[in-house]
Amino acid sequence: MSEPIAYTLWVPGVNCHVETIRALKRVGAKPELILLSQLLTGKRRLYECDVLTLPGGFGFGDDVAAGRILAVDLTLRLADQLYEVVERRIPVLGICNGFQDLVEMGLLPGDGEIGKPTAVLDYNLTARFEHWAEVPVVLHEPEGVECVWTDGLDGMEFKMPSAHGQGRLVAPNGPGSYHVIATYGPGLGDETYIGDGGCSPNGSAIAGIGTKYIAGLMPHQERTEDVAIFEAGVRSVR
């Protein structure tokens, strides 16, 4: 069986691409690092892959707002390619900054149109960047949608690093507008800070949301020995 081609998109400021590529290799994919400049010049296209990942870091320095500059580039200049990714049902995973990109593009929560965001990953309630070595994260197979990235992982708990300043999901249309694929802490999640006996780095119980093919996760599983999410996503295209 051939190895699924997995694109990892890089822009200046992204710094988790190496770990993301390593995780994809471990689960049997054939990862390729794709530069935004290659897309803008037509040398590559977003949909010429089996799996697409947007890694963490600080794309374009998180100027204006985390994820916004890349979102503007892609939705205004390459919207046709984004629509093609959706039409072809290519699994997409955004981690931390990549999750912020997907929300800014309108691809998540998935209740709107490309280029028209319907939610925001707002500032942590501490109003500062939070960098924790280990956070308990529980994965979920969400109700109402079979997300390929958490298929077979319902209720599994992992310890993951977390590092972000804007990770608190705010969705004006309420909980019914998104599907939760990951929470901080046991059960349905704990929104309190670790100093208060809780385990959320930002004041939200939600660590990740998704649709059937597109998922966003704030903590970094690619930095751990456990790569279950990557394995599930790649398995879905074999």
Explain what you see.
The chain is α/β, with parallel strands linked by helices and 238 residues long. It has 6 helices and 11 strands. The strands form 2 sheets. A 9-stranded mixed sheet has the order 2-1-3-4-11-10-9-6-7, sandwiched between helices. The protein has a two-stranded antiparallel ribbon with strand order 5-8. Helix 3 crosses helix 4 and helix 3 packs across helix 5.
The order of strands across the largest sheet is 2-1-3-4-11-10-9-6-7
Number of strands: 11
In terms of quaternary structure, the protein is single chain
Structural class: alpha/beta
What is the chain-wise order of helices and strands?
Answer: EHEHEHHEHEEEEEEEH
Low-confidence stretches: none
Number of helices: 6
Q: What is the CA-based Rg, rounded?
A: 16 Å
Give the averaged pLDDT, no decimals.
Answer: 93
Tell me the helix content: 10-25%
Q: Report the biggest beta sheet as strand number plus sense, adding barrel if it closes.
A: 9 strands, mixed
Query: What fraction of the residues are assigned to beta strands by DSSP?
Result: 25-35%
Shape: globular
Distance between the termini: 8 Å
Essential attributes:
238 residues; alpha/beta; 9-stranded mixed sheet; two-stranded antiparallel sheet; 6 helices; 26% strand; globular
Task: Give me the secondary-structure topology.
Blueprint: E1 5-10, H1 17-26, E2 30-35, H2 36-40, E3 51-54, H3 68-77, H4 79-87, E4 92-95, H5 97-105, E5 120-123, E6 130-139, E7 157-164, E8 166-170, E9 180-184, E10 206-210, E11 214-217, H6 228-235
Parallel strand pairs: 1-2, 1-3, 3-4, 4-11
Antiparallel strand pairs: 5-8, 6-7, 6-9, 9-10, 10-11
Helix pairs in contact: 3-4, 3-5
